[in-house]
């Protein structure tokens, strides 16, 4: 006998509107909607309660269906982004900031295999009002996302809305990842010295309209000090939804690539070989990659590059630019997050 799903305690919306499930609500296929063409958009608390019910077998008590998903008080939760928080790890589950213990081949952003769902849970997607994917980003607090400035300059200039998709491993899926949320950006802070031609200071900070409930479970840290360096040769991981190859197609699933940090002089020499102009690496940037196997690619811009520090992943860089994808001896250029710690902390402290 087929088990009936409980009625959606939130709002049933058309599948083409799934990215409009805002605030602390998410699309969930464990609840039933009368029309097969609609999806259930419900507060995350109902999803968590229902999944606890499935595991425990206890009676389920949900609120009556409502026409509009509830939005939580905007001051209910703010993450201190400077301190890594401790999270109890459940057996068999991935914990943000700590890689899972399942052995598998290393994937890559250019080609290769996709990551595991929830493995890189600080990875977010920037989308526009037409539900079109724009760039990647890194969730650094319950209301704050870091991305590359070049990803949003045109949108900000035109006054267009920007949305952030949080916790969605597969953007092409009809239902999306369970528990994923879409948050509207209330304010965009592009670095005051950003140069759109040279891509110097290619960093932007986004403030979300509502706090992201998923951030409670995240383990993620920023560099501890201004200007902290990552040693050349250190292997770090870049993630993103972008192209699987220089000519496409775009993955729309989170992929990963393990890359070495490249020494500044070597990076400058290698990039000068493929550009007609003399290249000088900006002080707020660094290089990584330079092999054919692993690299970031188009569509990965603004996405995080993390390095393991004392057992935890630390946000070291943001994908900025490069010449092609996965070219031998041509490293990619990344924003050095440690160079902007003061700028980040100042904006957050004033606007929290």
TrEMBL record:
Molecular function via GO: serine-type endopeptidase activity
Pfam families assigned to the protein according to its UniProt record, in alphabetical order: Trypsin
InterPro entries reported for this sequence: Peptidase_S1_PA, Peptidase_S1_PA_chymotrypsin, Peptidase_S1A, Trypsin_dom, TRYPSIN_HIS
Domain Peptidase S1: start-end pairs: 109-349
Highest taxon of source: Eukaryota
SMART domains, alphabetized: Tryp_SPc
Record GO biological process: proteolysis
PROSITE patterns registered for this protein in UniProt: TRYPSIN_DOM, TRYPSIN_HIS
Protein name (Swiss-Prot/TrEMBL): Protein masquerade
Native organism: Caerostris extrusa
